[in-house]
Give the backbone structure.
Amino acid sequence: MRHHIIIIGTNTMTRLCLIRSIGEVIDCDITVIHMVYEMPKKKYLPSDAYSKYVKECFFAYKFNAESLCSILLEHCSGTEEKPLILSVDDDSANLIDSSLDRLKDHFLCAHINHTQGQLARLMNKQVQKQLALEAGFRVARSWVLGQKDGHYVVPEEVTYPCYLKGLLSYHSMKMRQGRFESREELLRALDDMSKHSFHPMLVEEYLDIEEELGVMGLADGERTEAPAIVELLESGRGPQKGVSAFGRVRKEVPGENIIGKVVSLARKSELFGLFNVDLAICHGEVYFLELNLRFAAYGYAITKAGANLPALMVKRSFGEPQDGCDTQIKHECSYINDFVAICDFVRGYRSWKDYKALRLKADVALMNEPADERPFKQFKKKMWIDCLKERIKNKLDERKRKKTDNR
């Protein structure tokens, strides 16, 4: 029987990396559900839907559980074997988790003790910090912001500079997070936020980060696999700032004990599913930053290094033997997130020479895969069209401004 895998989320690049990790080794039907703020007005497919491993693509509203559940139950259920749902972002994982009682008789998916709402509980960064401390990691001091009379309340003991972020991984307000040098600067930003809506927010002591690391893992309640450490060596620029553009997959150095702590953290969480952990080196110490209950794009580089965690997730979910799925990488490798690097180039944040230099020193390209080339071709086509439209719009806006100034 061919398995049915459903991959859900907003991030086209991460979905594609997950699609290929599974499709390259498992003969299955893959459905993509692209989460959007508004439905496309004309015929359109995201670039990952052009992958040779994808059978069909649907669209659902990003924060609307009913929209997602309707597609799942109407178009993806009713088969003899339950399909497996995999999410690539926290908002999508939260929608599935909040609808678990409705979906679990029809689908397999990530969960904690098959209990609705437990993944959402684990997306609370204070809950994550406590688990990280118990696992042996250092964590930054933090304060949850209260609310009073329509304003955020900042505790007096907050130290500066500080870092503001969402308390919850879903609805995380990433556009609002950042460093603040003083209490006055932080309060101004929070007052501006409160004019629109209130979201649970967290303030942390600012860490002077020397190096960023990532660990991809799979937990199934009994066993936890974390085959490698990923060094995030270069970030994207402009709108892609903070997203890895170039990195290296490596084995753990003897005595480092990062993977052991990650495994301990995952076991304490009681998670069944794929996950990744963000870490940072600060003053020579390893600090826990965040636990993400989903696949990360750099996971495809780990797949290429010999440890295919998504394929292993599929086999374990369906109770199959793990033949051909190693739990340790066979070799180290570097990777380029060419989606991020090309976006930087097209938008003017990175030179073509800089992009080519990254591409030449990378062993693995996350998007430009010759054996599955259509997604990359579609992505480049759309990026150039969007860039051209943006430049035309900017030129027209500039002309309008000049005409207005001349009056």
